[in-house]
Amino acid sequence: MSKDRRSSLSAEESGAGGNLGGESLLKKGRWTSAEDAILTEYIKKHGEGNWNAVQRHSGLARCGKSCRLRWANHLRPNLRKGAFTPEEEQRIIELHARMGNRWARMAAELPGRTDNEIKNYWNTRINRMQRAGLPIYPADVCLRVLISSQESLDIGSLTNDFGQHDDVSQTRQF
């Protein structure tokens, strides 16, 4: 097949998923304000969800993943940009003590913040604390997490699989 014919095929027609022997029909790199406007308008009209459809039907020469990331990390109307508030910082510390590195789950608990933002904040904080020779978690956070997990264990031991009390003295033997 000639090079001209190959480059005129869409990714769907070629079956190559957008990559024709090293040539890509999809744009990479910085987004333009025109592309941002197209993506924003498409999302307003059709909603979030099927990101590959966004790529196919919006006229953008970007892959679905790129569209999703651009929307989630830069264009979403409820995004909060800038430094974390002291309350958000405290919440991240507590969430990390409970969940570990589950950034997407943490982002769900912090409206308007992205998983990547939270991860970057946490990693910067850890480096700063380690350089200063300080503990990663403040003592009060450790204590709250310990008490919370202990309460969960105590409550769990009081009920059986059916949510009924396991106290033998309260069950009747016939």
Radius of gyration: 25 Å
Number of E-type strands: 2
Low-confidence stretches: 1-22, 158-174
Element order: H for helix, E for strand = HHEEHHHHHHH
**Average pLDDT over all residues:** 77
**In which range does the helix fraction lie?**
55-70%
Strand order, largest beta sheet: 1-2
Largest sheet: 2 strands, antiparallel
Distance between the termini: 84 Å
Query: Count of helical segments?
Result: 9
Oligomer: single chain
Approximate shape: elongated
The SS-based structural class is: mainly alpha
Q: Which band does the percent of strand residues land in?
A: under 5%
Sequence-ordered SSE layout with sheet pairings:
Elements: H1 3-8, H2 11-14, E1 19-20, E2 23-24, H3 33-46, H4 51-58, H5 64-75, H6 86-99, H7 103-109, H8 115-132, H9 139-158
Antiparallel strand pairs: 1-2
Helix pairs in contact: 4-5, 7-8
InterPro entries: Homeodomain-like_sf, Myb_dom, SANT/Myb
Subcellular location: Nucleus
Region (Disordered): 1-25
Question: What do you see in this structure?
Answer:
- With 174 residues, the chain is mainly alpha-helical.
- Helix content is 59%, strand content 2%.
- It has helices at 3-8, 11-14, 33-46, 51-58, 64-75, 86-99, 103-109, 115-132, 139-158; strands at residues 19-20, 23-24.
- A two-stranded antiparallel ribbon has the order 1-2.
- Helix 4 (51-58) crosses helix 5 (64-75) and helix 7 (103-109) packs across helix 8.
- The radius of gyration is 25 Å and the shape is elongated.
- The N and C termini lie far apart (84 Å).
